[in-house]
Design goal:
Elements (H helix, E strand, L loop, with lengths): L7 H8 L4 H13 L5 H15 L5 H9 L2 H10 L8 H18 L23 E6 L4 E5 L5 E4 L2 E4 L10 E4 L5 E5 L3 H7 L9 H10 L7 E5 L5 H10 L4 E5 L3 H15 L6 E4 L13 E6 L4 H11 E11 L2 H14 L2 E8 L5 E4 L2 E4 L9 E7 L13
Parallel strand pairs: 7-8, 7-10, 8-9, 10-11
Antiparallel strand pairs: 1-2, 1-6, 3-4, 5-6, 11-15, 12-15, 13-14
Length: 389
């Protein structure tokens, strides 16, 4: 991003000698907008360290918070900033990145140990917590003793949260109240890192219900993406179920594995992941109870998914566009292997309820995708019906 593309708040700081407190506030605010996950945590922690050391060379720091997430994340992983940054800042960044890596590998409980941490009782080190400010903004962070959660409304010592129960209210260094809860799966899915568009909770909830997921179910998934739908499926089928996911892109698999591990602690033993195009996969016939497809061209995965489904099994396909839905439904009808074909769209409209002001919110979560659901018939049948709701 060029200097002319910087936010106006940062541009105005160039016009006159900057007030240090104001500049740091702006920098931390911009850093907090990079991501609500590891990038934000690293960058805000690094800026706080620079502030503590009295750094006052604002130009490279502004460049730093203006980097795009992929570039910044790569710099965090390698510990190296481009040579266009001042040598002093590059050395400080490299040293901090090394300490950050060591801290992430510390044997204390961490996000990767989430599966062993309690879901009730006092909040413990290593747990993810959700902080909610007075305007309803959500901040996802990990509890670590001796660390601070820093954002544009100040900072909160994590030691003040450790040992508390959910629903506790804390105040930032600037006096702003924050409510503390353990995050739900919905909270995590909306804020976790992603390559592709995730399946939104409003859609995955309907997919799980219409797909009739149950403990012990054997589920085939194609289109792992960032792992959002897989986590919903794994929770529903439980340890006695089985999920087999196919994903053609290795970078998507790496991101999905990381997201699942951050939430569940590790990839469950009952989750198989194949870096393979489902259209070329060899799947045992009628070995699955449910099949979930999230593909750019669903019809390419339908032949294998259909062969893998047992009679009475349920197919669920999600697509963002009308042509994809039309092609999917036409394929299902032409196959004469499906009945009870449904096409759904889920719209969520929040409401404001304040005193006598009871009205719809000014925004709503409208179209995200279409969901196609169908039941697998016993071979030799030809009955196909459509269900309209």
């Amino acid at each position: 991003m060029t200097d002319r593309e910087q936010p106006s708040t940062l541009e105005s700081a160039e016009a006159s000698p900057p007030d240090e407190a104001v500049v740091w506030k702006e920098l931390l605010y911009e850093a907090g907008r990079r991501s609500r996950t590891e990038v934000e945590i690293f960058l805000t922690a690094f800026l706080s360290a620079c502030q503590a050391q009295g750094w006052s060379d604002w130009t490279p720091l502004r460049r730093l918070v203006a980097l795009e997430d992929p570039d910044l994340y790569r710099a965090i992983l390698t510990g190296d900033l481009p040579e266009s940054f001042p040598e002093g800042l590059r050395k400080a960044w490299s040293a901090f990145a090394r300490r950050w890596s060591a801290r992430r590998d510390d044997p204390r409980p961490s996000a990767s140990d989430g599966a062993t941490l309690p879901r009730r009782g006092p909040l413990q080190a290593g747990e993810w917590v959700l902080l909610i400010d007075a305007k309803g903004r959500h901040y996802l962070t990990r509890l670590e003793p001796g660390q601070n959660f820093t954002f544009h409304l100040g900072s909160v010592p994590m030691d003040a949260i450790l040992g508390q129960t959910e629903g506790t209210a804390v105040r930032s260094s600037k006096g702003h109240p924050l409510l503390v809860f353990r995050p739900t799966l919905r909270d995590y899915l909306l804020q976790m890192p992603r390559h592709a568009q995730v399946v939104y909770p409003k859609d995955s909830a309907v997919m799980a219900m219409w797909g009739d997921l149950y403990p012990g179910a054997r589920v085939l998934e194609s289109g792992l993406g960032s792992g959002a739908l897989a986590m919903v499926i794994l929770r529903a089928v439980g340890p006695t179920g089985r999920l087999v996911s196919y994903e053609i892109r290795a970078d998507f698999i790496r991101r999905a594995v990381r997201n699942i591990e951050r939430w569940l602690g590790s990839i469950p033993e009952n989750h198989e992941i194949h870096n393979e195009d489902i259209a070329r996969a060899q799947v045992e016939p009628e070995s699955f109870d449910r099949a979930f497809l999230d593909l750019p061209t669903p019809t390419e995965g339908l032949p294998v998914a259909t062969g893998a489904l047992r009679p009475g099994g349920i197919l669920v396909s999600i697509s963002p566009t009308v042509p994809q839905v039309q092609e999917t439904v036409e394929w299902l009808r032409a196959s004469n292997l499906y009945g009870s074909i449904e096409v759904l769209e889920v719209l969520v409209r929040p409401w404001n309820v304040k005193g006598h002001s009871v009205r719809p919110a000014h925004f709503m979560v409208a179209h995200t995708a279409f969901i196609v659901v169908a039941r697998r018939l016993r071979p030799g049948q030809s009955f196909v019906d459509d269900v309209y709701i």
